[in-house]
Every structure is written in C-alpha cells, then in structure tokens.
C-alpha cells in the first residue's frame, strides 16, 4: 500500500457470490492497474489533443438570482400523477435512479398532497399547541426563528411507497415508478420537545394530534414519546426554507416514521390521552391483514433497500465489470449491512456501505459485478442495527397478505437479459 492506495490483488477480483459478484474491497482500489485488471466497463476512447470547443470561444451566461440545473439534465425530473378531476391530489416521485449520494435536491424531493399545495403567507401563519397542556401557546414563524435549532439528516418515505409490489404480477416500472416516494434531506428546525415543555405537558397526555393547514386539514395521531424524543418543527430543507410542496413555512419531522405522519404546513398540535382516529389514520394508512383485521398505527419504516443502478431504463452496454449501487434505509436506526445477489437470491455477498451511515437516513451501498453477458437477477437485502432483516416478497405477503398497499419492504428483483436490458421481475 502506498499513499493510502493499494493495488488490486487477485483475491479482490475473484467472485465472492454466484453470477459474478466481486469482493467489495475492490472498490477501495484506484488507478490504471485496477481499471485494467478488473475489466471495468470502459467508456474512455483513445484520442488526440483536446479541441477548442465553441463554448470556449464566446462569453458565457450571466449570473442569475437562483441557480438551476443544466438544460442537458432536463431528464432528471420527478414524475407525478393526480387523481382524476384534480390538479394537486396525488404524488410526485423522485428519480432515485438518476441521483448519486444520499441527499435529495429540494427540487426533486417527492411530494404527496391530499388537496393541493396551499400558498401560505408566512407572516400570517401560526402554530398552536393546546389540549392537555398547562397553558396553550401560539408560535409565529418569526417567533420560532428565535429558538435553538438543530439539524437532522433524515429520509421521508410515503407509507404507500412500493405498494405496487403487492400485486400478483410484476408491474413494469423502474425505481422511480416503484420506489420514488422516498427522499432524504437535511432538515433544520426547533426540537418539538422544547415547545411542548414551554407549554407544560399534562401528565395525562400520551399522544399528540398534528394537523396541517392544507384544504384537507390532513392530521395524524402520534405517540407523545416520539414528539419528546427526536421530533422537530422543521423550517429549513437542505439549507433553504422548506419548499411549498414539502410544507412551507413549517412541517413536522418525525425521523424514521412513515411519511404521512410528518405533517406538512403544520398549524396545530393538540396533546391528548389517546389517538384521535382521524380520517387520515382510519380510512388510509392501515395494513389490511389476511384474517380481515387491520393493523393500525404502524409508524416506523421497516428496513428496506433497492438497487438504483443498474435498474430498468438503464441498459448495460456489453459484458464487463459494473458497479451495482443502491440505497438502504430503516426507521429503526442505522443500516448495519446490505447483501447483494446476482442470481436471484441463491447466493449473497456483502456490499460496501458508503459513509456516513446515519440513523433514519438513506445509506448508499456499492459492490462490483462481473457481468458475463448472460441472464441475471439482481437483488439487495438490508439489515439494520436492531437485527431486523429485509424479508423476501414471499415472506412479507405470507405475513400480511396482498390486500394492502402500505409498508411494502420486501426485496425488489431486477431481471437482466442478454441484451443488457433490465425489467422488474419476481424471483
């Protein structure tokens, strides 16, 4: 090893699981020896001297008040669907397959709205805390800005994300269509516990009701213990004021809890002695079980992962070594391990977890793969620090049945054909 870089050894380039998965340590190696020895899919071409391109001969564009992505990246965009007859009741989905790292840009963060996005004047908006408290309090946005703030990097995932995988036949969509109701950001705001302490919590209080200021008055009941733990009233998203579609001027952040509980456009928190059984937690966001009963108040997102590259819509260009990369997350804490399979779950190899590995945040995993040009089925399987292991689709449906669309966290399978195209399959 020299200057922190070690040449790839033969052991690193040997398969460690079926169908060509290589040792994850190969990703630590660098330099021409690694590229040549591993046979990574090559895109470099032999060429002559650099040319003077047209954009080097003219003055560039001027400064703008708010920067935008290059127009060459216009395909990196959300997709969205709304209910018939509406313009804002539905969801937009993050293009996870087109992003790197773990932080979602604000303009690509998924959105779920029940009655459109309200245009709220921040100078007129207030947050009321009342119910089982010693003294009800009301906070303006300006007042909250005077309180101590914290920042948390946390994922938010809609409880219905991946719901299409409960269907009998594999839906022919890619990562964005199947798993795009998932994003991760740095959220900054006031710890909710500070505000509740100031209001004075009645000993009889066990729950809170959080209500939004949208036309649907979207509201959810949440255990008080979570509110007093790591919940924040978020004012900022990745360093700037929260975007309107994500709750401007303030939203509730409950790290690790299903997205719907992270109430947007937060206007009211009522302390109660039990759940309020609102329309948003009885008619929706419950898990219908095979025996006809419904599982209610399932809050934490269970450990889950998905391979984002390669994935449907991203074609492999000939046999060679590729990097398999994806995302893993869990509402129970940090991701401890991600295994990857290239033979439909017959054999597994541990992937490299990219730092930082944070609790209740997305974690990027990577592993090199020697594709021989034949058929393959790619899968990933996450395990979190609590010991929970992501189940197969069959295991999940055996436990919950297939009459629900919520909290799908079974293993997703991508089938690779000989021509390099990928498709969603059940393995």
Quick recap of the structure?
The protein has 427 residues and is mainly beta. 9% of the residues lie in helices and 30% in strands.
Overall description:
The protein has seven helices and 26 strands. Strand 10 and strand 11 form a beta hairpin. It is globular and about 70 Å long. It has a five-stranded mixed beta sheet. It is mainly beta. It folds into two domains: 1-39 and 290-427, Immunoglobulin-like, CATH 2.60.40.650; 126-160 and 183-285, Sulfite Oxidase, Chain A, domain 2, CATH 3.90.420. The protein has helices at 32-38, 141-144, 175-179, 192-199, 224-227, 279-282, 393-400, and strands at 15-17, 21-22, 79-82, 90-93, 111-113, 126-131, 137-140, 150-157, 182-191, 207-212, 219-223, 232-237, 240-241, 251-253, 266-272, 287-288, 294-295, 304-309, 320-329, 335-341, 349-350, 352-353, 363-371, 376-384, 413-416, 422-425.
Name the poorly predicted regions. 1-9
Return the CATH topology of the largest domain.
Immunoglobulin-like
Mean pLDDT: 93
Strand order across the largest sheet: 7-6-15-10-11
Main beta-sheet strand count, sense and barrel state? 5 strands, mixed
Rg computed from alpha carbons, rounded to a whole number of angstroms: 24 Å
Q: Report the CATH architecture of the largest domain.
A: Sandwich
- Structural class assignment: mainly beta
Dominant shape: globular
CATH class membership of the largest domain: Mainly Beta
Total strands = 26
State the share of residues found in helices, binned by percent: under 10%
Tally of separate helices: 7
Q: Roughly what fraction of the amino acids lie in strands?
A: 25-35%
How many domains would you count in the coordinates?
2
Q: What is the CA-CA span between the terminal residues?
A: 41 Å
């Amino acid at each position: 090893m020299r200057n922190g870089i070690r040449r790839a050894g033969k052991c690193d380039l040997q398969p460690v699981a079926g169908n060509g998965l290589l040792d994850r340590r190969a990703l630590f190696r660098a330099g021409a020896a690694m590229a040549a020895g591993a046979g990574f899919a090559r895109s470099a071409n032999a060429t002559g001297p650099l040319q003077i391109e047209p954009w080097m001969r003219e003055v560039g564009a001027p400064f703008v008040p708010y920067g935008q992505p290059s127009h060459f990246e216009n395909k990196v965009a959300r997709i969205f669907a709304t209910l018939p007859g509406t313009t804002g009741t539905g969801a937009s989905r993050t293009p996870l397959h087109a992003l790197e790292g773990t932080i979602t840009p604000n303009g690509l963060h998924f959105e779920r709205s029940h009655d459109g996005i309200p245009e709220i004047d921040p100078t007129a908006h207030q947050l009321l805390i009342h119910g089982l408290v010693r003294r009800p309090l009301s906070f303006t946005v300006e007042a909250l800005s005077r309180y101590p703030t914290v920042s948390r990097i946390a994922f938010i995932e809609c409880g219905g994300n991946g719901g299409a995988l409960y269907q009998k036949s594999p839906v022919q969509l890619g990562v964005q269509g199947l798993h795009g109701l998932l994003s991760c950001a740095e959220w900054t705001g006031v710890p909710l516990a500070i505000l509740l302490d100031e209001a004075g919590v009645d000993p009889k209080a066990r729950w809170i009701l959080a209500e939004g200021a949208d036309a649907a008055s979207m509201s959810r009941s949440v255990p008080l213990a979570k509110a007093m733990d790591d919940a924040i009233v978020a004012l900022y998203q990745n360093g700037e004021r929260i975007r309107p579609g994500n709750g401007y001027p303030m939203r509730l952040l409950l790290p690790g809890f299903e997205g719907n509980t992270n109430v947007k456009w937060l206007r009211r928190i009522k302390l109660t002695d039990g759940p309020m059984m609102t329309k948003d937690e009885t008619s929706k966001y419950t898990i219908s079980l095979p025996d006809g009963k419904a599982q209610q108040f399932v809050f934490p997102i269970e450990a889950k992962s998905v391979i984002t590259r390669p994935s449907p819509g991203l074609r492999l260009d000939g046999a060679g070594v590729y990097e398999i990369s994806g995302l893993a997350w869990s509402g129970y804490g940090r991701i401890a391990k991600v295994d990857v399979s290239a033979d439909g779950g017959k054999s597994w190899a541990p992937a490299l977890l990219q730092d930082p590995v944070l609790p209740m945040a997305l974690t990027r995993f990577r592993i090199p793969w020697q594709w021989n040009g034949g058929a393959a089925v790619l899968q990933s399987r996450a395990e979190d620090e609590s010991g929970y292991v992501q189940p197969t689709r069959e295991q999940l449906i055996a436990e919950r049945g297939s009459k629900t669309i919520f909290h799908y966290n079974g293993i997703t399978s991508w089938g690779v054909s000989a021509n390099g195209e990928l498709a969603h399959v059940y393995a």
